[in-house]
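ok here's glucose-6-phosphate 1-epimerase, seq below lol
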Amino acid sequence: MGHSAAAVWDSKAAMEITKDWKGIDHVVLRGPQGASARISFQGGQVISWRNDHGEELLFTSSKAIFKSPKSIRGGITICFPEFGNGGSLEQHGFARNKLWVVDDDPPPLPSNDSVGKSFVDLLLKPSEEDLKFWPHSFELRLRISLAPGGNLTLISRVRNINGKPFSFSFAYHTYLSVSDISEVRIEGLETLDYLDNLYHKERFTEQGDALTFESEVDRIYLNSPNVIAVLDHERKRTYVIRKEGLPDIVVWDPWEKKSKSMVNFGDEEYKQMVCVDAALVEKPITLKPGEEWTGLMEISAVPSSFCGENLWS
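and the structure came out like this:
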């Protein structure tokens, strides 16, 4: 038997650190079949994820403002230590606006998540300035890996190296590229309770057998299953989102009116994207000194015909 491409493929050679046009380091991960992911050290943000055919799977606004230290409107942003608005912190926390560094000596992951994958380990620690606004010492580790088949996995670990407990919320704010939002349905959220941000976080129960879009949506689905499917009928593509340690799913599409009010978002771009975030929002995690929390999200993009019974196994 001959070796498969994945077996002889050198995962270390498939990770390249380069600089963008602003001089900020970013990482390119490559899979053996042609898939790729691009991650900026600014915010630890995934700014591109392409399949084996070179098709971009993440949405980035054409009006996105590439101005440090702000995160880019699109891709996958890391929301920590909070999701949404609150307190003295900026919306969605500060991790997405900070410069991360390569984690040269990460502690091993329990699942050995690097076998056969190209990956990068990034690290964020608080600066003196951060400690003024959020006075808690932490280490936030992020491993981003690309599997030979093109699946993208993000694993975050938050460790309390403080003298006292602290609490946080978290989300992978994920902009998926879709053909037309009116052709999209999300399965796996049926019968769940959700908090509706358009109605002052009032609690409702999902009545439909799938979520479809006819107007602005901004919801936090609670205690969701660990597998969610986002079906794009026109492209005959399904995004499968698997998660661990992240009980909630945030779904957002700004629709027409809100799109026109956002300076870093095109008026019609709400049609080409949907945000589906693996998140920890309703019940923040509290870590005692020395404790660590782990949250994982894996996304795959598969032909819709492949789904059905295979999806939930």
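fwiw Residues 5 and 239 are 25 Å apart (CA to CA). kinda neat tbh
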